[in-house]
Design brief:
164 residues, alpha/beta, Diaminopimelate Epimerase, Chain A, domain 1, four-stranded mixed β-sheet, 8 helices, globular
């Protein structure tokens, strides 16, 4: 019941307050700057809440993240090094999904740590700080395992996607 209420009471205005244009621009800049040092691609997606039908289907946040992973084509990078940071704002839940190239070198513990740091920041209302730290952590991981080789096409947009 509390999950249902969280979604029903969440408004698009609450999403805009947490992720206004300046915060989105800061995330975009951090993604773009970080991607200069590695061969990966990062997509940051925020979804304020879900429609009632999705809630009643008992879909998990992970299942939705997998769906968004496909829709935003994170899987479609040359070296399979795409990473999705998915935020379900009304529940303060985060999922990080990495394509198979990166998952071979980074385990679930790594993603769980980044998610925990991000959700802690969100619960404290520090959306920009938490988001930028998460992006930096993913950039660091990608830089360690897939450093830039001089040619680094930008395969996915850097600007965050904000849904609902």
């Amino acid at each position: 019941m509390s999950r249902l209420l969280a979604h029903l009471l969440h408004t698009p205005l609450a999403t805009r307050r947490a992720f206004p244009d300046p915060v989105q621009e800061a995330i975009r800049q951090t993604v773009a700057e970080g991607e200069q040092g590695h061969r990966g691609e990062i997509r940051f997606v925020v979804e304020g809440d879900w429609p009632l039908g999705a809630l009643l289907s008992k879909r998990t946040v992970r299942e939705r993240a997998v769906e968004i992973f496909g829709q935003t084509r994170v899987w479609d990078t040359e070296e399979n090094t795409g990473v999705l940071i998915y935020v379900l704002l009304c529940e303060h839940k985060v999922e990080i999904l990495a394509d198979r190239g990166l998952n071979q070198v980074a385990g679930e513990e790594t993603w769980a740590e980044i998610c925990a740091t991000l959700t802690t920041a969100f619960r404290a209302g520090r959306y920009q700080e938490g988001s930028l730290q998460a992006v930096r952590s993913v950039n660091d991981l990608l830089r360690r395992h897939f450093p830039s080789d001089g040619r680094n096409p930008n395969e996915l947009p850097d600007l965050p996607v904000v849904l609902r």
